[in-house]
Design brief:
This protein has one domain (3-290): Carbon-nitrogen hydrolase (Nitrilase/N-carbamoyl-D-aminoacid amidohydrolase, 4-Layer Sandwich). It is built from 5 helices and 14 strands. It has helices spanning 18-32, 81-93, 136-139, 211-225, 275-284, and strands spanning 3-10, 56-58, 96-105, 108-116, 122-126, 149-151, 154-160, 199-204, 228-233, 235-237, 243-245, 249-251, 257-260, 267-274. The strands form 3 sheets. Strands 5-4-3-2-1-14 form a 6-stranded mixed beta sheet. Strands 6-7-8-9-12-13 form a 6-stranded mixed beta sheet, covered by helices on one side. The protein is globular. The two termini are 31 Å apart.
């Protein structure tokens, strides 16, 4: 498939209330699938394209709880309420649902990014670089596996917030590996690609005080990896007074913005990626042949 349409939600997260946040996201999906005449007033600013046209819907890091010391106490079992709800959303709107929430396994908690298919199957990536400065490092266990998954002919690499600062971890490998969770799905790529992934997908709670670093790094990762990059960040004020401006954006392989959310707006944005243009750029400028 040449095109991939993505909707990302720059969400103002309700602090510590998973049920309220699931309701908020569900309402956003529902309102976005109505016609203009059917849509009642809402505090979510919508994109021009309806989410019903999208292949993927993305929410920020820890979209059910917000990011803070309270996360571990609100952790869910893997087959808990948020996964069951995400399955319902993916099936109802026939799209891939992507977001992170905290999962408890035995004595460990993980900041786990999930991708949930319309048929109910799912895969996940555990955040590898837990944020030492905030104390996440002390309460959330680090993931150890790089992952790439496939959907509708696209290779997608998941990452979470602080991972963005570590280019070696996010390096686009020249030789493609096996991705076991993809085998069960029919919408896979059938041709060989010289690089490991086509889209780097980053869910984040990146504070507004460091927004320049955020916007610079998502562009840098796109340029150096010759890949599209989506950075989906939260907005609003958290439960301890931290302020988030969002600055969510979809960046192309040249480092240019394809779509950007309005800073600080509780907003969905939709944009379409084109595989042919990406492949042509990589063929014309094969910088990956000289990667260190």
């Amino acid at each position: 498939m040449n095109e991939l349409t993505i909707t990302f939600y720059q969400q103002d997260i309700v602090w510590g209330d998973a049920a309220a946040n699931r309701h908020k996201v569900a309402t956003t999906l529902t309102q976005s699938c109505l016609s203009d005449s059917e849509r009642p007033a809402t505090n979510v600013e919508q994109s021009n394209q309806a989410i019903k046209q999208s292949d993927i819907f993305v929410v920020p890091e820890t979209f059910t709880t917000g990011f803070g010391d309270h996360m571990a106490s609100l952790a869910e079992e893997q087959e808990g309420p948020t996964l069951q709800w995400a399955r319902q959303m993916a099936a109802r709107y026939d799209l891939l649902f992507v977001g992170t929430w905290i999962i408890r396994e035995g004595d460990h908690c993980y900041n786990r990014l999930h991708w949930v298919y319309p048929n109910g199957d799912f895969g996940y990536y555990d955040k590898a670089h837990t944020f030492r400065v905030s104390g996440e490092y002390d309460i959330i266990s680090r993931g150890t596996q790089r992952k790439v998954f496939e959907y509708k002919g696209w290779r997608i690499k998941p990452a979470v917030c602080y991972d963005l600062r570590f280019p070696k971890w996010l390096r686009n490998n020249v030789e493609c590996g096996e991705h076991p969770d993809a085998a069960a799905h029919s919408s896979l790529i059938t041709h060989h690609s010289p690089l490991d992934y086509d889209l780097l997908l980053v869910c984040a709670n990146w504070p507004g005080s460091r927004h320049e670093a955020w916007t610079t790094l998502i562009k840098a990762r796109a340029i150096e990896n010759q890949s599209y990059v989506l950075g989906c960040n939260r907005c609003g004020v958290d439960g301890v007074g931290g302020k988030y401006t969002g600055n969510s954006a979809l960046i192309d392989y040249k480092g240019l913005p394809l779509a950007e959310a309005t800073p600080s707006a509780n907003q969905t944005v939709t944009a379409t990626l084109e595989k042919d243009k990406l492949d042509t750029f990589r063929q014309r400028w094969p910088f990956y042949l000289d990667f260190d």
